[in-house]
Amino acid sequence: MSTNSRFAVAVHVLSLMAWSGEEPLKSEQVAESVNTNAVVIRRMLLDLAQAGLVVSQTGSLGGSRLATDPAETTLLDVYQALECGGVFSLHRQPPSRDCPVGVNIETVLGEVLQEVDSAVEKVLKNITIDDVVQRLKPCGTLNNVKKNSVGKSNGRLNGKAAKVLETV
Amino acid sequence: MSTNSRFAVAVHVLSLMAWSGEEPLKSEQVAESVNTNAVVIRRMLLDLAQAGLVVSQTGSLGGSRLATDPAETTLLDVYQALECGGVFSLHRQPPSRDCPVGVNIETVLGEVLQEVDSAVEKVLKNITIDDVVQRLKPCGTLNNVKKNSVGKSNGRLNGKAAKVLETV
DNA sequence: CGAAATTGTAACTATAATGGTTACAAAATT
DNA sequence: AATTTTGTAACCATTATAGTTACAATTTCG
């Protein structure tokens, strides 16, 4: 369905900011964690800023930080900030008006899609950015060491991880 | 989000077949109602046939018809037949392994997306093709006449509508 | 059998959303 | 004034889907 990772990236970005607190993050730092280009991040930050979820500042000490309490910001807020406009779409071209099915299928499907969207929104409304951050922590410390067991992740920041978050 | 109308078209196609009963519909007829090309329809019918929802036959009296009871076929069956693979996607490129957020965000997001998908599936599982067809009927007779009030749709088939469904 | 109709399928182009890149003006700090 | 960073435009790349043409394989019917 969706070849689209915008929602995942947006949650990633906001989680980074929640993790790092008040200090503004530069788009370059965020891009490094997300593994993409800084302009892609800035474009997304514009959407998030327009929705009032982040604030940014230009200049040499600039960057972006959360504009809201992460414990109050839900994934529904994030989803709506991206203006994805629903999970499914209706027909590209309107169906035949001369067919009894075609003439009304959009109305009926519209109701169904609305029902789907409501269900999605209900789930997203119950998860906050803070929830996501809390759920990140156990993975980073216990679970992951056990899985990889090569000592790559030992709870301390090292290498680029330090570069990304120590400056924060 | 989804620039994708495959689900809408698939439900349209199956509703047409449910509406028209046992008689096989030709891809050209279906394409006329959906307002697209017959090959687009045939490609979709291949997906639906592989999922066991329709059967097709070549030859001069060929066409496609439902392979299941429309009252037992849910929109979840349709959705799964299309193999859309979930409502949202994770990151295209894997995030940084050197960032405490990046290294675990995919795991956490995967759980969230699973929760979303389950909610969507729960809704779709409760709507059958027959439900859709039933909900098409009132629109075609009362509601629509009132809305358009130009007598375009008067309950009888006329013009191309006749062409599409009278042969059925 | 041979003609006609229809599906199955390949090959190609078109469209649209997203992602990636480069470049640079505007703003803020030193 | 110099430096840094965002905001933003412009362009290309990638991917999924839709649309089109063409044709072999299959089925019916004369």
Summarize the structure.
The structure is a homodimer of 168-residue chains. Chain A has 168 residues and is mostly helical. Chain A contains seven helices and two strands, in the order H-H-H-E-E-H-H-H-H.
Characterization of this structure:
Chain A is mainly alpha-helical. Chain A is built from 7 helices and 2 strands; from the N terminus they run H-H-H-E-E-H-H-H-H. Chain A has helices at 6-20, 27-34, 38-50, 75-81, 102-125, 129-148, 160-165; strands at residues 54-57, 63-66. In chain A, strands 1-2 form a two-stranded antiparallel sheet. In chain A, a hairpin with a 5-residue loop joins strand 1 and strand 2 (63-66). In chain A, helix 4 (75-81) crosses helix 5. The first copy, chain A, starts with 5 loop residues before the first helix and ends with a helix. At the A-B interface, helix 1, helix 2, helix 5, helix 6 and helix 7 of A face helix 1, helix 2, helix 5, helix 6 and helix 7 of B. Chain A binds a DNA duplex (30 and 30 nucleotides) through residues 3-6, 26-28, 36-40, 42-43, 45-46, 56-64, 92-93.
- Report the count of strand segments of chain A: 2
Strand content of chain A: under 5%
Largest sheet of chain A: 2 strands, antiparallel
Biggest sheet strand line-up of chain A: 1-2
Helix share of residues of chain A? Answer: 55-70%
pLDDT under 50 segments of chain A (min length 5)?
A: 142-164
How would you state the average pLDDT of chain A, rounded? 85
Oligomer: homodimer
Determine Rg of chain A (CA atoms, Å): 20 Å
Structural class determined from secondary elements of chain A: mainly alpha
Overall 3D form of chain A: elongated
> N-to-C terminal Cα separation of chain A, in Å?
37 Å
Helices and strands of chain A, in order, run as HHHEEHHHH
Annotation field: number of helices of chain A: 7
For the largest interface, the chains and their residue counts are: A-B, 71 and 71 residues
